[in-house]
C-alpha cells in the first residue's frame, strides 16, 4: 500500500496503462443502443453492459490491475480483501489465475449467489469469511486480519490502481460510442468506478456531464461532498448491497469532488421497479446496483431529451431468491402495496364485511395474519392489500373510515414496517 500513499497524482495515463495490463483477462463488454429507453425518454440511450463481464461486474478490472502489479514481497503472505460480493469475485478470479492465496471477508448478509460465485472463481486459492451485517463490518475485520497475518490488503475502491482498472470501462465506451456523449450515469458505492471513468472522460470528452447515482439508503458520497469532507454515515440500508457503503474512500472523494457534475439519490423501491423493468422489457438481468444508473433517468427526463446518454450497467449478480423482496419493494414504491393493522370486532361476519364493503373490485388481499383473543371485543390483524392502480388508495382509505374499522397504516411507520413486514 505504500506505493499508493506515495503516489500523489492520478491521471489518464494510469488508466491507459491499466487497459494494457488487463486486456488479456477481461472481456470487452458491449455498448448497446437501447431502443425502448431511447423512445421512452426521447433521446439516445446506450447501456454499457458490465453485467456481461466474465464475473458479471466491472470489479474484475480494478482487482486484477492491482493484484497483477504486486511485488513478490507483497505476495509472500497472500492477499486479503473485504467486499459485498463483486470485488470479491474479481479478487477470487485473479487469485486463481495468478496462483495466489486470498482471504475474502464478506458480510453475512451477502446474497448466497455471490458467495457461491466467489467460491467458483477462486476454487482452492481463496478462503471466505462471512462476518457482520454490512460491507463496513467485513472491512473492519479484514483490516484486522491483514495486520495479524501480514497479508496485502486489496481495497475495493480506495486504491489508485483499482481506480485505474475501473477507468478502463471509459476507454471501451468512448471507442465504441458512435456519438458525442452528453450525459454519463454511473453508480457510486465507494466511488472507484466514477473516479476512474470520470477522470478519463474529463480528459477525452470534457463536455460530457458526469452524473453519479447512489441509493437513498446509503448516500455516502453525496453527504461527503455536501460537507466538504469524507463523512461516515451512521446507518445504511444494505439492500443495494453493491453500493451500500458507510464511508466512501478518501482518494475517490478527492477525485469525485473535482469531476462530478451532480449526484442523484434514488429510492430503493425505484431501483427495484427499474430492475424488474430491465428484466421484463429488455431481458437484462441486473443486481440492484446495476439498475441504479437507469433508475436515475426519470429524474433527468427533461435534461436528456434529444441528447446522447450512456448508463453503465455495473453488475448482474442477482440472487433469484431476492426476487420476492424486489417485487414487494417495487409495489410499495409504486403505491400498489399497502399494509394495515386493522382492529376487527370479534363477532361472526366482521371479516366478511371487510371483504365485501371495504375492498374495491380490483383490490387483492396479499397478506393476512389475525390474532383472536377471547377476552377482548376486538382482535388485531396485519392485512396486506395489493392495488391494481395507485389511484385506488384514497377510495380504499375512505371506505375503511366509513365502515368504522380502527386501523393503522404500517407503510407510514418505518419502525413498525421493519418489525412486521
Q: Can you characterise this structure?
A:
Helix content is 43%, strand content 18%. Helix 6 packs parallel to helix 7, helix 9 crosses helix 10 and helix 13 crosses helix 15. The strands form 3 sheets. The protein has a 6-stranded mixed β-sheet with strand order 1-2-10-7-8-9, sandwiched between helices. The chain has a 4-stranded parallel β-sheet with strand order 5-4-3-6, sandwiched between helices. It is globular, with a radius of gyration of 24 Å.
Compact summary:
With 421 residues, the protein is α/β, with parallel strands linked by helices. It has helices at 2-6, 12-22, 35-41, 59-68, 72-75, 86-98, 112-122, 135-149, 160-176, 192-204, 220-227, 250-259, 268-282, 288-295, 323-333, 350-357, 393-402, 414-420, and strands spanning 31-33, 44-49, 79-82, 102-106, 126-130, 152-153, 183-187, 209-215, 262-266, 308-313, 337-345, 364-370, 378-386, 406-409.
